[in-house]
Fold this sequence. Notes:
This protein is mainly beta. Helices cover 14% and strands 41% of the residues.
Amino acid sequence: MRLVYDPELDVALLVVDEGGAAGARHAAVGGVPAGSYVDAEYDEGGRLVAFEVIGARKVLPPEVLARAERE
Length: 71
């Protein structure tokens, strides 16, 4: 698992399975605070491969974003 963060766009990507991202399907995750959006990505078998977090500073702790890889 790895976390990649683009501070300029304020977008974080939590990759669960690097190999499953090709051809991934997307679904919005509910219950996210206003000003943020979370998208779950699933492979063709329905297994979770990643989460994309738009407005990451609003929902992820600063220390987590500080440790993330930079995009």
